[in-house]
Amino acid sequence: MAHEAIVEARNIEKFYDHPDNRPVQVIAPTTMTVYAGEILAVLGPSGSGKSTLLRILTGLSKASAGQVLWHGKPIDNQSLNVSIVFQSFALFPWLNVLENVEAPLKARAMDAIRRRKRSLKILETVGLDGFEAAYPKELSGGMKQRVGFARALVIEPEVLFMDEPFSALDVLTAENLRGELLDLWRSQSIPTRAIYMVTHNIEEAVLLADRIVVLAKNPGRIRTDLRVPLPHPRDRKSAEFVQLVDHIYKVLTQPDATPELAPAVSVPQITGDGKGAKFQMLPHARPGGINGMLEILSDRGGHDDLYRLAEDLTFEIDDLLPIVEAASLLGFVRVHEGDVELTTAGREYLEADMAKRKRLFNKAALEGAVLMRQIKRALESKSDRRLPAEFFHDTLDEHFSEEETVRQIETAIHWGRYADLFDYDAGSDSFYISEENRPAIEDNDSIWV
Amino acid sequence: MISRIPRLARPVLLRRTTPVLFDALIFAAILAAFYGLLAMARYWVGAAIPVTDISRSPWALPRYAFYSVMRIAVAYVASLFFAVAYGYIAAYNRLLQGFMVAVLDILQSIPVLSFLPGVMLAMVALFPQKQLGIELGSIILIFTGQVWNMAFSFYSSLRSIPRELREAAAISRFSKWQRFLQLELPFGAIGLVWNSIVSVAGGWFFLMACEMFVLGNRDFRLPGLGSYLQIAASAGDTRSMLWGLATMIGVIILIDQLIWGPVIAWSDKFKFEQVEGEAPRSALLHILRTSPALEILRRKTLAPIAERLDLYFAKLATAHTEHSVGASRRKELAAWISAVVCVFIAIIAIVYCLIQALALLAHLHSAQILGVLQAAGATFLRVNSALVIASVWTIPAGVLIGFHPKLARIAQPLTQIAASVPATALFPVLLLGIVQIGGGLGVGSILLMLLGTQWYILFNVIAGASAVPSDLKEVADLFHFSSLDRWRTVILPGIFPYLVTGLVTASGGAWNASIVAEYFHFKNQVMSTVGLGAQISAATDAGRFDILLLATVIMAALVVSINRLVWRPLYRLAETKYRLES
Predict the structure, then answer these.
(1) Which of A96, A416, B187, B327 has its CA 20 to 30 A from that of A255?
(2) A128 within domain boundaries
(3) Looking at beta carbons, which residues of chain B come within 8 Å of A58?
(4) Is the same domain home to A45 and A177?
(5) Cis peptide upstream of residue A233 (ω within 30 degrees of 0)
(6) pLDDT tens digits for A275-289?
(7) Residues B267 and B180 in one domain
(8) What span, in angstroms and rounded, lies between the C-alpha atoms of B438 and A4?
(9) Is the pLDDT of residue B86 over 90?
(10) What is the dihedral of CA A243, A245, A248, A252, to 10 degrees?
(11) Do the chains contact at A88 and B164, CB–CB below 8 Å?
């Protein structure tokens, strides 16, 4: 590497405290470097700690273990010149555009005249001249994010951090802003020496970045670190571009495969956590979503390229992956080298009527999903067939963060209700098996339709 | 040429004259305020006159109104500063957080009058020769009725600042001062404004109790609207009562127009919403904003001072971060040690007070304790009957108004005026009527609680009913729901969260109102009924601190446990099951 390292993370880890003193690990020991002169994109599914990592590198949050170095010195005793562009813009609604942009300069004790001059110049650079006196609520989303960029750039940060800066914008606005940012960077009209961008949009990463770091989840860790050798301006339709996007897609959809060998290895199940594992994560997908995906897949002849499917549905991977994972967990589809294909069980499921579908789903969920099996068994072992949700909450949160635990239970409720496995009563916050859920349903389903 | 001059000059002149006129008005107002303060100060530092002879002449009313307004204003300003400081410390000091929030919860449920003996005796002891002592006592009493909800509002605002806004401030390296001015205070502003309005209304409600009271063998009377109304009531002078009432309503409406109207319009810019909505307007605010004199004051004086402060704190913060880590660690240690010492001293003080209090209570006979408990039971029944009666008429009326926008346009301003009249001021007039019919305070006190608290329920029901989506109503029409079904499946679930909010506020208010409702000086005699509020008032009058303490503790315990056991679960239910999401 010819370039100088600006930020280095050495074996950093992050734990969140837990009431039972059993900390939950969100980032496994990770080492990474941000070099001068590069745009680094960090890609990963939700739960891979990509935002946490950004906060540790910028000093907003402290690593539980390991070291963060800026120019070779520990982060603790230096005041950094960095800024962040936020997904939600994070503008102060009671300050007008100019006051918002001036705020960080004021914090640096710059006098009023120089502050004004610098702010007006940067507003002109991001195309906001004339909007100085407007308040954020008068602006469109794209304009708001321009203010976000102006506020970040006005301090002339050494590294510009961005946390999913384009994901709250509509497609056209996002594309426009991406282009403008790239122009600013490539023409060197801003003194920023490196850009660090968190995203879950593969194409965005390939379009902008010089280097892409892909993270895996539970706990967050680096899966692969690859250069993007394509020259600017990059053409989305070019073969190299599509190939690279496909490759990253495969890396993301096959958590257990070694990325370098990915094309050669066939992996029958994409549920990396494994059926036999004691604790497996239920993908956050609702039965309705799974059914919809299966039907679209069937319309397309029963198999398709995952990336093409997502693109045609204008889905982000974060939205589509859990649905595909869930269908695979249930044995309705098979994922193979970035392709997804309906299985025999999947076809049978699709052809069935409502009642039969529920029965098949019931069987598949009990076979494939550990959590569903656990809840069912626990309920059956009680004479009144009722248990407080807290019980499952407590067993789950040994392995998941608080937020994830809640999502796991929510997902289990959706599946349980759809499959008539069990029901949930919000009033008493408990799971139960009612008379109707008893196995009798299997014998004569027609009257239940 | 000549003909062109007027055409050019006129609009310019017109544009100038209006603000100049208003500038003159502003100067006049400042001058008047200055003279008022001087007069007030002269009176305060003068010799103590515990029993002022309160005139019943209507001509004394402007002066009395001014004194009362000043008391409420000083108490309010003190409340504002205290609330911001308390909320800030409670939100950021992890050691003290739980403790401070619990204290707030309890203090909120202690009725104003229970603070009276302690506050009054302390103030009179501090300034034995000056009127200032008695005045400060009265002001602190009003303060105790205003401050808690404001402190709680600011605390919860601070806790709910979105994470990314906090991070934006941190990554921009805001000093604590800048963070306070540009993030925390603006974010808490709307909550503070609405709670200020509620607090000042509470100040009017308890004004009579705070301006004139007997404490053991000492009689305190301060010149003011509250004492005027009380004197008029004691003498049974209906004409003076009506004069006093009219003055009070006039002052309240004036304050609403001149202060809250502009303040609400101004605070709209602190709304944390990303889209533009209908903003409240105020003509007065517009005048203030366009006044050249105020603009000069702002540009030449306020802005440079603010700028210097900002830069001073920014430099301080920059210097601070460049210090070595060791210094900050030492500082952290020092802060920790001082916190431990403070907590230690506080614990000793609390234990000492507890022992003293228990010693005081040990002297009570079992009959007296039984009496207080019976009184608590009576007040409990009274508070709940007031809530039931209020619900019986406000729910149908509120739903009717909420469902019919045309009706709402007429009813809304009327009910707002009715609600702004402090019930305590109306009480003497009502009591006169009740006595003439032959009723007693037992029923009369329920009426007073009703007067003071039914508005909370009514306003919330109206808000809830107008928020019920029209498609739900259309479904009810489509399926020809009977009125019973309509109420059960659409209306009641729809207004439930709002109803719970209204009932919580009304319940707390009714408990607090019991002190003024169950015990009343009327026509040179004391009217009272069995109740916890009567016990507290009578104990204050008689200087019986033991009974006062016991009754206060029981009332606080009752209010806090009702909140925990009844309202909080209902609230949770309202937030989960009965939430209408669009």
Answers:
(1) A416
(2) yes
(3) 171
(4) yes
(5) yes
(6) 334 467 888 888 888
(7) yes
(8) 94
(9) yes
(10) -130
(11) yes
